[in-house]
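Protocol step 4 of 6: structure prediction from sequence.
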Amino acid sequence: MNFFIYRRNRLYGEDVPLTALAEKYGTPLYVYSYQTMAKHFRRIAETWRPHPVTIAYSMKANSNLGILAALRNLGSAVDAVSSGEIYRALKAGFRPEQIIYGGVGKSEADIDYAVEKKVYLIVADSLDELRVIDRVSRRRRRRTLTGLRVNPDIDPKTHPYIATGLRESKFGTPFADVRNVFRHAGRLSHIELAALHQHIGSQIIELAPFLAALKKTSQLVRRLRGLGFPISLLDIGGGIGITYRSEKPFALEEYARQIQPIIRDLDCRLILEPGRVIMGNAGILLTRVRYVKTGTKKIFLIVDAAMTDLIRPALYAADHEVRPVRKTRRQAFGDIVGPVCETGDFLVRDRRIPRLGPGDLLAVMSAGAYGFTMASNYNSRPRPAEILVKGGQAYLIRRRERPADLIRGESIPEFIKER
């Protein structure tokens, strides 16, 4: 569900015509719908009542300050996976007790920053990391609430690059090692190990892997409690898939209905980490056709957006729906490609696409998650502007980068003579 709809054959973002945004702010351009993200967040919250849950939005999906502040006002906490994301969350107005810090490979400096800022929970990936958290906490003269990420070895049936719960994944502690980790962690005086965390992958559209993983993790909670380890928090991660083109993910209501019986008698506060399911369909990438080239077997729409703006098609073979901003029934078989010097620079490949001409606008749908956050300056391309629309109003939440932004922080060594 989203609020990008046609009116009189023109595509709108809520009550704002996308043609007007392209004219004012240029292209490529990210456009987000407040009503869409708010509806998705509220729907998640409603499906879990009255079970006590903390909804911690997964910042890596979209970490713009404007988006974060809007979700904060809706009642969200946040899941951060770097000290930079913690910094962003604080700047967006989140209180430290609303921040959960996870991720793999945290440096001691990262952990020190999190402990200094007094974030609510730090989720460790291993015993070694727990020892670092303890050492930093001792130095800071604090006792830190911690959790342990476990690896349930469950196939999430998603793209292998975003599968994180298999035994060959770098994420989490194997179940067989968890008891030993807790036993050693019990000797660490400046941490309180009170949470288990699982996250098996992303863009998962089948419910069965979630249920299988949670059954294993809930049994682990019971075993640890039987050994005297007080587990009071259970973080079941995120990963719920969305519809990009033809996918048919399970309903959020069914997700909550089937999970609640598994955890009902655990007496744990539940933490959810939704990201894509809130923001994915709440954003589009607006792009303009520069040229049309006819090949021997297909046409190429050469647009001003590239893999630098949206890398998901090149990286994950992601298949986004595209819509012409001015509605047309004319189609052709071909590719939508960008101006970057890479064969992998495509947004759409080998399928029916709108037959458009130079100057026409296209909307790449479902680009609100893992779009701008994964953008780069490859080929020295400035990153796009970002717009948040609410009703009939449009708000610039990030200006388009300028050439000077591309070289900020760089310098020419003194030994190199000026020309």
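Step 5 (inspection) to follow. The chain has two domains: 4-32+280-406, 102-274.
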